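Supplementary notes for students who missed Thursday's class. We covered one full example, reproduced here. Read the sequence, then the structure, then the short commentary at the end.
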Amino acid sequence: MIKTVLLIVLISPWMVLDASELYRYFNKQGVLVTTDTPPADAATNDYEVVNESGRVLRIVSVLEAGEDLSSDQSKLDNYLLTSFSSIDEIESLKARKVQLLMREIEQLKRNLTALAARENKIYFDASNIELSGEVVSESVTEQLQKLQNARAELTDTLGQRREEFKNLERRYKTYIARFRELKTDSN
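Structure (token representation):
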């Protein structure tokens, strides 16, 4: 009975993440959110569609809605005017998003370093086995292949996050410039 309950408790989080497509976005507080439903403010904010492992399948941009640019511009203008009262608020949100993204990038780098160390240890152990005259088992080769695949996926994800960082910088630079224009026009 206890084993069954423990198994259910351990499996339950993975069952929730079993959706084929998930949505990842930053909420209004600047927190990175991954969920199985599109964000409520999808019309005014970019978001990513990702698979269960976090790999980005596509990025849905505010300007991809298929409407004309003036409609998109008015949506962006409305978002800026209703969400922010000053440039400092825009910069503060940007700083929070940058901080979260940098934290994720640093974690990916640490994971890559850990994978490399693990891979080196397996190579070292395998060479010691060979030096002792024994045959290295096939499972070692399988482990190395899994590590190499994981490293390739992490490297790919790290590249995506770095690109997101560049896009974030550009987006908020545009937001600030447009907010200035809107505030100047209203005065």
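Commentary. The first helix runs from residue 2 to 16. Confidence is low (pLDDT under 50) at residues 3-19. If anything here is unclear, bring it to office hours.
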